[in-house]
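Cross-check.
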Amino acid sequence: MRVFVVLSWLLVACGPSLPPRFVLERDVDDLSYRRYQHVLDVELPVAGNPAEGHTATYLRRGDEIGIATAFVTVYERAASLTAELRERLDELASYELETVKLEGKWVWRLAGDEATWVLWVSGRYVVKLGVPSGHELSPALVRAYLRLYPSDLGADGRARPGTESAGMSSAREEEEQDLDVPSSLREGAPR
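Predicted model, tokenized:
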């Protein structure tokens, strides 16, 4: 039993810890880290769930200069975060939203005229990585952030059951209350 406890402690202690400012402030593969910025005005605000953002910019030099951006938003609470954000993303008219598998994990991809982004929810964190349209996002960058922030998303683009960010959005909850749907039939309710 003692061996099990010690091994469990070592696995937790040796696992990836979050960077002090939430983004990777180092070079990743062929991307050179360039700059950090703290942001109080987040891109995807959720009513009643304060958040702040942290960005990092990476640069690739070579025949063609490339740039990549990482944006980690830290929300106060994780509950229902995936559903809240999914509703906002579904409303974005200038981007095409799809759920894709990258590095073995499900993420959302937003493709627009000027940029392509991948993003996902991990507990109370939202990671958004992007490049200008026509450029490929570095698999090494995606892999590095997915190690720190494992995706809560399933193949359907919704939070997997049991993840911290699972639950109904406030709009959906209100809708179901208006319909007077028994709680046992509501999305995310234990069956």
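The chain has four helices and seven strands. The longest strand covers residues 51-60. Passed to J.P. for a second look.
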